[in-house]
Every structure is written in C-alpha cells, then in structure tokens.
Specification:
The protein has 3 domains: 158 residues, no CATH class; 70 residues, no CATH class; 56 residues, no CATH class. Helix content is 35%, strand content 23%. It contains 10 helices and 13 strands. Helix 2 packs across helix 3 and helix 2 packs across helix 5. The two termini are 40 Å apart.
Length: 302
C-alpha cells in the first residue's frame, strides 16, 4: 500500500496509508487500516500532536533555553515526535527532565484558557478509546436534509469541531463524522423526549446505519460517549425520522406473489411500507431484508 503525507496539524505531516474513498469504494483492508490509524491517533500521547510554539514556550519559560535555540529545538521536536519512538523520548527526557509531561499539561491548559481550540490535541478531550465490534448500529442526529454522509470533520478538528470548518469527503480528503450507538435509545418516543439531550442538541432528524471499522471514545467536553467513523466506511444508512419506511422491492414482490397464490403474506409489505416504534424493530426490518436502506424513498420523512 502506498503512503501519502497529509497534515494532521498545521505544519505537522503524518504518514498515512493512501486510501481511495469513492470510485472505487474503499476495500476492507483500507477500512481496517483507517480504523487502526484513527484508534492510534486518538490514543496518541498529547505531546505527539503539539504545536511547535507550545514546545518553544516551555523550553524558554521552564528550562531557560534561549529564544533562537528553543525555536530550532521546537521545530525538531515537532518533526520527530510522532515516529521518534523510545530513543526520541529518552533523548528529550535526559536533556529536559519531565518535559513531555509538562507539554501535556501546558498544551491542554493553554488551549482551553486562551481559546486555541482549533489546535487542540486529541488526548485533551478523548478518553477510554476503543474499537467497536463489526456490525455496530449507530444513530446520527442532524438538522440537515441528506441521504448519505459526504461532509464531515478533518482529522485535526475532531477534538473540537465547532472551531473548524467541515470538509467534503473525496479521494484527497479524509473526513469523519460522529454518532451514538443505537441501542442507547429505547424507542422513538424516547428520542423525541430528549429535548435537552442528544435529540435536542444535535437536531430533529436522524439516520441509522452500521459500521464495522469505527472507534468509540468518551468526549470530555461534550460529556458523552461518541462513535467516530471515517465517512465512506458506513453502510445500511437509513433515515428513521418519520417512523415509516418503504418496504423493499423484494418484500413487496414476495407479498404480492403470496397473495396471488392465496398463501399467507405480510400485509404491511403488500401495502408497501412498515411502521416501527423502536430502533430494535427498525434494525430487525433491515436485517431481514424487508427494508432497503439504499432506497431513496426512505428519506422522504426528513
């Protein structure tokens, strides 16, 4: 697999496996690599994602390094910190004892205090990071009217998306979206009651879908567990806002054939649509092939 360098932070190039996004779609190998990298990036020590000016300030203020020397050292630090390994850690800790922990503390404190949220390292807000099981059902709340995920947050903006502009997914742009695990929510009425929770906070419409290669993490600023996935890895996307979804062509044809043969048939399928009151019911409809998540008509409820 070839390697492409993208900027995960301003001025900070990180080696990533090159992953075509659409046309052709991502392969399973590419999706797994995407999940692995996202997992590693969210769990990476804060000092691996630090800005050079933070390192320079700490060297000058706490280690009495001259300005010119500190600037050069800070640039070296940023160039080597991501892939430097144990030798890099030993080198810097021997020369400047305790500096990595100081960078961790000062970087987060400065970002929150001075409002530099657009450059916030992942470790300042994401905790308890883990990979989710394949086939995990998720739910995404939105005020937008769309039938697929095309726009999301770039990698460096995941910690605080409100301070960064969204980007459109393409072969050259990796972007990510957030969701919640669907089994957190009991039923549609439960969703609609959450005026101050997820439902009211993120929008009145919602999409339900599955992921195989996502990451779960606790976002301390939002005070909630979130599912993070690279756009292009989701599947079985279905709008569930209306509580009514169109029956799949196969389900309709099977019901019509059964009626004609005077056999038992599914009346809802014959009528062309299913109602559901719980997320579990919707999942069952999709898993049994009674609803086609790729059917655009199922987005009419948005």
């Amino acid at each position: 697999m070839s390697i492409v360098y993208v900027k995960a932070k301003p001025g900070h190039a990180i080696a990533l496996p090159e992953m075509p996004r659409r046309n052709p779609p991502m392969t399973e190998e590419q999706k797994e690599a995407s999940q692995g990298y996202l997992y590693d990036y969210l769990k990476a020590p804060i000092w691996t994602q630090v800005q050079s000016w933070d390192v320079r300030t700490i060297l000058v203020d706490q280690y009495d390094v001259e300005e010119d020397e500190a600037e050069g050292l800070a640039e070296q630090f940023q160039e080597r910190c991501w892939e430097g390994g144990p030798a890099f850690i030993a080198e810097w800790e021997n020369r400047f004892p305790g500096i990595l922990e100081k960078i961790n503390e000062e970087t987060c404190n400065t970002a929150f205090h001075d409002g530099h949220m657009e450059a916030l390292p992942m470790g300042c807000v994401f905790h308890s990071v883990e990979k989710v099981p394949e086939g995990t059902w998720c739910i995404h709340f939105t005020n937008a009217d769309f039938n697929s995920f095309d726009v999301g947050a770039p990698l460096h903006a995941l910690a605080y998306t409100g301070y960064n502009e969204s980007e459109r997914a393409s072969e050259d742009a990796w972007v990510y979206a957030f969701a919640f695990e669907a089994d957190v929510f009991v039923d549609l009425d439960d969703l609609r009651r959450r005026h101050t929770g997820y439902h009211g906070k993120y929008g009145d419409n919602y999409l339900i879908f599955q992921v195989d290669h996502a990451v779960r993490a606790y976002h301390s600023e939002d005070n909630e567990y979130q599912i993070i996935f690279q756009i292009g890895t989701e599947y079985n996307v279905l709008n569930a806002t209306s509580g009514v979804v169109r029956a799949s062509d196969e389900a309709i044809a099977e019901a019509e054939a059964a009626e004609e043969a005077e056999e038992e048939y599914d009346e809802d399928a014959l009528n062309g649509e299913f109602q559901f009151s719980t997320i579990e019911e919707l999942m069952e409809l999709m898993e049994n092939g009674l609803v086609d998540p790729n059917d655009f008509d199922n987005y009419r409820g948005v």
